[in-house]
Amino acid sequence: AKVFTQGSDSICCKGCAWLLACIKGSCFCVSLVIALVVGGASLGFLAIGKSDVQMWAALRPFWISRLQSWLAWFPIWFFMPYLGFLHYWRIERRKKAQAPHAAGVV
Known about the structure:
There is one protein chain. With 106 residues, the protein is mainly α. It has helices spanning 2-5, 11-48, 55-79, 85-105. It is flat, with a radius of gyration of 25 Å.
């Protein structure tokens, strides 16, 4: 919201930006608390429970999915055309190579 109201002197726009920032922070805090409660309860039930499932065996699919995500993220975002790191790195390198020529003209 600050991006859209940055140049505005209106009290209404500043109030809306403040209200949206508060709502955003509140939603983040609520979702964090819910995640911690659900995660803690799940681990607690698993640790206290009478089941034969070990805690590490139950968490193994989670850790495998995290590892797969991290391993897949790098090549996808590095080589993705028009959005990836390599594309923007080449643009910056091209601009940097052209900068000394422009500075010499002035």
